Amino acid sequence: MPGGMMNPTCLKGLLTAVAIIVVALSHYFAANEAQTQATARARENLHAVTFALAQHIERTFDEADQISRMMRRSYIEGGNYRELTRSIYRELNPVLYPQLGFIDSKGLYVFGTLPDFKPIDLADRKHFRIHADTRGDDFLYISTPLLGRASKKLTLQLSRRMDSASGEFLGVAVVSINPEQFTAVYRELIGKDGVISLAGVDGINRIRVDKSGFTFGHDISRFNWFQMIIAQNHGFVDVTSTIDNKYRMTAFQHLPGRGLFVTVGLPYDDIASNYLPAYHRYLPLLTGFLILTLLTLFGLSLRTQSLNQRLKTSNDALSNSMRVAFDAIEAKNRFLASVSHELRTPLHGILGHSELLALEDLPVDAQDSATAIFRSASHLLQIVNQLLDISKADSGKQELRLEPVTLRAIIDEMMNLHVVTANRTGTTLTCDIGESVPEQVQTDATALKRILHNLIDNALKFTKAGAVKICVGATASHVRFEVADTGIGISAENQLKIFTNYTQVHDFETREASGTGLGLALARSLVELLGGSIGVNSVLGEGSTFWFTIPRENNMSVTEDRT
Ligand code: ADP
User: Fold this and answer.
1) Could you tell me what percent of the chain has a pLDDT over 90?
2) What is the pLDDT of residue 562?
3) How far is the CA of 240 from the centre of ligand 1 (A)?
4) Are 460 and 468 in contact (CB under 8 A)?
């Protein structure tokens, strides 16, 4: 935009854009803040659930360990360990503990609490081998889930070695646990897309529970987040599951001394829907919408700007052409004024000398020529004067001399001037001055005379053997002049044209009178300069009434003549 100015449309567009940016930004920050708070709340809850789950599993393992120790003691002491084990089992929840049993030193499953128990060989099973192969170490081994050969159920085997008092390996006491059972409650807590897992620091997943059931035995040691988990007792990692591809906030908690840890994962989608207030959930959408609106407005403002630019360019072009046109009119007026002025001096010379010649005692032919020269020169002078006047009026340089003017004197002067022509053409010329007409008005006498002269001259020119009447009336504010004739009249269509320069609406052939086509245009300019208006009522073939008004009081400042 030139000169650094900004048009109002652009300014409005810019202010709207700024307002929208402020609203969008505040929404963005509010949404961000809400998101941060929701995430923090979700983390707290997730940590609590994970901690509780770890405690619960820990308690279950403790209980299972107590049971395995009691079973071991009865086995080592050589009493009726079978009966004792059955009586312990009766006190337990059978869904959580599918069975209790013993493997002897050879790997033979010698006793189990299942009703249809039969001895089977379990020598190759890890929960036996780990104790048989690591002599002297007394620890509770927790296996990966296994399909029990005896129970036919997927179970975690918790086993403890049994040694005699002399240190001889006697076998293994085994407590089977249904892993699904101790995660069941927690599945309810983490919603439909949450994931719970129990895994070992050995990188093997003991159990992973999600909505589709549970899986186990995956090697998770290759994931980056696994390295983070084994480095700390508890904390959070972000995990994208290779199983369902979901991105989850995942809390972890180690079970001290067991080489195991618990994880609970909650999808970030659920965090937004569960923890964000409803209003904030729509903020990203709202912000997006606002930004879209902003972009649209910006586009519109650019478009408006380019339209404005185009408008401005065509306006500039228009004002340039107008300036050129005005310059041309100005130049034409100047030319007319100076040419008319220059023509008047020699014309006066021709007039004077031809008049003198006509007075001389000359032969008749020469007399006629001198008279013809005089007439032609008079006519030419009239044209030149009109041209001069019209160019002055058009350029606004017409001199007005406002003074009290006696109307009757003006009308008398007009009558005297035109009565000769009227008599010559057999036309009656009369006048009527109304009673309400003031004796004097403040106006320019020369301009008033020129207007009246042009109208009366035309009336007589276009009326043959008829009547021309000058009427003067008045209203409270204006004096109204009428020049009515019974001449050839003017068609309605032509009435619209005759007040413009150089317009002659009667064909040259039918026009018996000569003229310039400037008389009415000059009359109109002068009337308007005097502060009045002009018009005509006419019927073709019947006659015309030209009228004009001038103000009773004219307080206009006098226009300075600068020609
Ligand atoms: P001109 O010098 O030709 O008279 P005007 O501007 O005075 O120029 O008039 C323009 C035209 O209007 C005339 O040529 C004529 O055709 C028409 N006109 C003017 N006055 C009358 C009238 N009283 N009756 C009929 N026609 C008229």
Assistant:
1) 34
2) 33
3) 100
4) yes
> CA–CA separation, 96 vs 63, rounded Å?
11
Q: Is residue 504 lining ligand 1, measured as CB closer than 6 Å?
A: yes
Cβ 16 under 6 angstroms from ligand 1:
no
pTM score, whole prediction: 0.46
Of 214, 221, 151, the C-alpha closest to 182 is 214
Residue, of 298 and 413, whose pLDDT is higher: 413
pLDDT band of residue 77 (cuts 50, 70, 90) is confident
The answer to whether the CB of 387 is under 6 A from ligand 1 is: no
The finding on whether 545 has its CB within 6 A of some atom of ligand 1 is: no
Confidence of residue 515 (pLDDT cuts 50, 70, 90): low
**If you measure from the C-alpha of residue 158 to the centroid of ligand 1, how many angstroms do you get, rounded to a whole number?**
129
Total residue length of the chain: 563
Residues 6 or more apart from 204 whose CB is under 8 A from it?
144, 217, 218, 219, 220, 221
Q: Say if CB 437 and CB 407 are below 8 A apart.
A: yes
Give the list of residues 6+ apart from residue 249 with CB closer than 8 angstroms, or none: 39, 42, 43, 46, 236, 238, 265, 266, 267, 268, 271
How would you class 524 by CB atoms within 10 Å of its CB: exposed for 0-12, middle for 13-18, buried for 19 or more? buried
Angstrom distance (rounded) from CA 84 to CA 89: 9
Per-residue H/E/C for 241-255: CCCCCCEEEEEEEEE
Is the CA virtual torsion 533, 537, 538, 543 positive or negative?
negative
DSSP reduced 3-state for 317: helix
Tell how far the Cα of 407 is from the centroid of ligand 1, in angstroms.
25
Q: Which amino acid is at 161?
A: R
Give 70 Cα–ligand 1 centroid separation in angstroms.
140
Q: Is 503 in the pocket of ligand 1 (CB under 6 A)?
A: yes
Rounded Cα–Cα distance for residues 487 and 504 (Å): 16
The residue-averaged pLDDT of 134-148 equals: 80
Please, are residues 463 and 484 in contact by the beta-carbon 8 Å criterion? no
d(C-alpha 342, C-alpha 384), whole Å: 10
Contact 544 CB / ligand 1 (< 6 Å): yes
Other C-beta atoms closer than 10 Å to the C-beta of 85 total 23
Measured in degrees and rounded to the nearest 5, phi and psi for residue 375 equal: -65, -45
Q: Is 501 in the pocket of ligand 1 (CB under 6 A)?
A: no
Q: In whole angstroms, what separates CA 181 from the centre of its chain?
A: 60
